[in-house]
């Protein structure tokens, strides 16, 4: 990708090196003493009183995400380094900025306003408004705080999956931003409500539709990144297709030594993910990304 002269985003929070805050602090100590306190009536009263104090006034990490200070990667000027000064973080900042440019224009055309997500860089584990997560879960989007979370070590995982290259990583970022777009449009909320009222197989199918739409949105971003800003080089789309295929549920099930079980898919098969990314890239049309209509009948 021709990314080095691209605009850097001011929406990157570099929280690498921070503690995940996995401990429960004072509330944790209270819970540890609970078995002793519950042996007497007075103990019950102490437990309830202290719990009420923590709920209303104290460090209630169990209920709310503690606000984190934002560390912008740049001032938005081309050529400025990302926080930490390393190349990969700088690349992430440029890709995020380009998704901002694409979706801002598309939302404006539709008469809407696009509010970009924050992207959080972290190591090993992170506490978000969606809970405590480790790097093992891979990149994810949390709709509760409108943030994309990314451990840069995932780049090595992509290489192990057979999807090396900078555009493969860009596809992953654009996919997570696609989930943010779904959240802004209200699609994520509707799917979540439908999943809660469905059996497991149907709920998994709805998840697949949501994930494939995010793949299509990533393809739409790639269309404009190539047409309007000439970011893509020969071979980049092939890298994106390899990445989409590599994280297909069937491929991942096979790699883990399990038989392919379509009813257990939550993200879509390799073929589906390639198809929907390609559909977005070829058309550049968000209206072509209605996976819910397309997959309610015969799958492509």
Describe this structure in words.
The chain is an alpha/beta fold and 300 residues long. The protein folds into 2 domains: 12-17 and 72-294, Collagenase (Catalytic Domain) (3-Layer(aba) Sandwich), CATH 3.40.390; 25-56, no CATH class. It has 11 helices and 6 strands. The strands form 2 sheets. Strands 1-2-6-5 form a 4-stranded mixed sheet, with helices on one face. It has a two-stranded antiparallel ribbon with strand order 3-4. Helix 3 packs parallel to helix 5 and helix 8 (236-246) packs antiparallel against helix 10. The longest helix is centred in the C-terminal third of the chain and has 28 residues, at 200-227. The chain is globular, with a radius of gyration of 21 Å. The model is unreliable at 23-38 and 50-85 (pLDDT under 50).
Order of helical and strand elements:
EHHHEEEEEHHHHHHHH
Shape: globular
Radius of gyration: 21 Å
Number of structural domains: 2
Describe the SSE topology.
Layout: E1 12-14, H1 25-37, H2 41-56, H3 87-109, E2 118-121, E3 125-128, E4 131-134, E5 140-142, E6 147-150, H4 154-160, H5 166-185, H6 187-196, H7 200-227, H8 236-246, H9 249-255, H10 270-283, H11 291-294
Parallel strand pairs: 1-2, 2-6
Antiparallel strand pairs: 3-4, 5-6
Provide key terms for this protein.
300 residues, Collagenase (Catalytic Domain), 11 helices, 6 strands, 51% helix, 7% strand
Give a quick rundown of the structure.
The chain has 300 residues and is an alpha/beta fold.
């Amino acid at each position: 990708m021709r990314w080095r002269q691209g605009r850097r985003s001011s929406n990157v929070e570099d929280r690498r090196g921070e503690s995940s805050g996995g401990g429960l602090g004072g509330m944790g100590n209270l819970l540890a003493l609970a078995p002793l306190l519950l042996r007497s009536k007075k103990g019950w009263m102490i437990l309830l009183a202290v719990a009420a104090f923590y709920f209303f006034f104290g460090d209630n990490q169990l209920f709310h995400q503690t606000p984190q200070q934002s560390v912008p990667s740049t001032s938005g000027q081309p050529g400025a380094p990302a926080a930490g000064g390393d190349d990969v973080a700088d690349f992430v900042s440029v890709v995020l900025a380009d998704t901002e440019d694409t979706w801002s224009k598309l939302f404006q055309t539709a008469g809407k306003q696009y509010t970009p997500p924050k992207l959080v860089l972290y190591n090993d584990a992170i506490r978000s408004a969606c809970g405590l997560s480790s790097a093992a879960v891979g990149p994810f989007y949390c709709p509760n705080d409108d943030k994309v979370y990314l451990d840069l070590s995932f780049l090595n995982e992509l290489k192990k999956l057979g999807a090396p290259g900078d555009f493969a990583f860009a596809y992953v970022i654009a996919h997570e931003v696609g989930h943010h777009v779904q959240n802004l449009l209200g699609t994520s909320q509707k799917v979540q409500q439908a999943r809660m009222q469905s059996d497991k197989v149907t709920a998994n199918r709805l998840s697949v539709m949501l994930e494939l739409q995010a793949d299509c949105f990533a393809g739409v971003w790639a269309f404009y990144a190539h047409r309007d800003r000439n970011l893509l080089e020969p071979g980049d789309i092939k890298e994106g297709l390899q990445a989409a295929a590599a994280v297909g549920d069937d491929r991942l099930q096979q790699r883990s030594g399990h038989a392919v079980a379509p009813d257990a898919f939550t993200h879509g098969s390799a073929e589906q993910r390639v198809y929907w990314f390609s559909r977005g890239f070829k058309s550049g049309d968000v209206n072509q990304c209605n996976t819910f209509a397309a997959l309610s009948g015969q799958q492509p």
